[in-house]
């Protein structure tokens, strides 16, 4: 029997609404653990409804860390700041002889904490001691930032869509902080992995191994539910949020923003941080209509219905992105360092079977992991596990800049970032109609109005793009 792992870590991942927090508490009670929050929105103080925080009763006496630890006036932590804080908390938990258990839906945070190979500049401050940004150009219009990025890092500039301000901004910030283009840093990290003394080797399952891997021996438990069951569950949760006082939290945030803007004379950036939490911006119009008291009952009802539908749609889309991150990024990252057999999917679709299909197998797997015993075959736990634990491709496109290729359709104006995006677009009916319209316009050489290309294909292109570069909007 192999030796028990030294300084083990259990990470629980999955979409919102699958019961990750409940499982974390059960694991902590069974194995003398403490829980570390890995959700970007739950870092903020207060707002338990919008951020879906676990309640004191649900904690069952288990200590929770990095939960409600920053003020509303603070921006969301960079991944580097989160990792530094989390590593300190993990050391404290271990010093008490306890098992650290990471749980949260911000999988970018989770993956950066689990793996050693993260950008070195993340921990560097973005502002000076007086609170001003170190690099004022990052506050310029997106076009200005993109032009500067094209100068210093054309590879990264060509990767991003021109409207992706945060990603363009981040890539330039990496250069400004380190003096190195982000694309060069990514290449250096890739070469480090490939040239590691143990790479590219294979274990008996054919998985690549690599020394530059996990920070600690890690067990990953993925709590999953089929979308046919999960989506209605998430939809009904919005009604429960309203019953628990969602609008009061929307009002709290709105009043806080108004107060900040009055004090500083500057508009609060609502494109990041707590302001992008699902359930806030979607209900602003309804809250305004309520407080204005001039809208009719019918108008109020319609506005409320629209707000509920927007919140439900946003939550479903977020859950979809979370699954994509696990399947595209986390799975490949684990496989590439030889730990693809350390992630287990637990099917929480049927809540009436929660004990037998989630709690019991999680306890058994965790016990084996902590004792150093052989782990079961993850694919044999369920049919869903066999399907979901197979990566959609054997590489993470984000780590393959040689495959990045941005093209702009002259007929439609659509921007495609990958070959797959481009193929989807040029095969679409909208593209063919736009090409036909352009030819007709060129032939007549005159038109009172410019021909506007149909854009029905944008949904397909966006879906493909999200599979290649999934982004966690709530993390910002």
UniProtKB/TrEMBL annotation:
One of its GO terms (biological process) is tRNA modification. Keywords: ATP-binding, Cytoplasm, Nucleotide-binding, Transferase, tRNA processing. GO terms for cellular component: mitochondrion. InterPro entries: Dimethylallyltransferase (IPR039657), IPP_transferase_euk (IPR030666), IPT (IPR018022), P-loop_NTPase (IPR027417). Its EC number is 2.5.1.75. It catalyses: adenosine(37) in tRNA + dimethylallyl diphosphate = N(6)-dimethylallyladenosine(37) in tRNA + diphosphate. Gene3D superfamilies: 1.10.20.140, Classic Zinc Finger, P-loop containing nucleotide triphosphate hydrolases. Residues 433-457 are annotated as: Disordered. GO terms for molecular function: ATP binding; tRNA dimethylallyltransferase activity. It is an enzyme of class 2 (transferase). It comes from the Eukaryota. Belongs to the IPP transferase family. Catalyzes the transfer of a dimethylallyl group onto the adenine at position 37. This is tRNA dimethylallyltransferase.
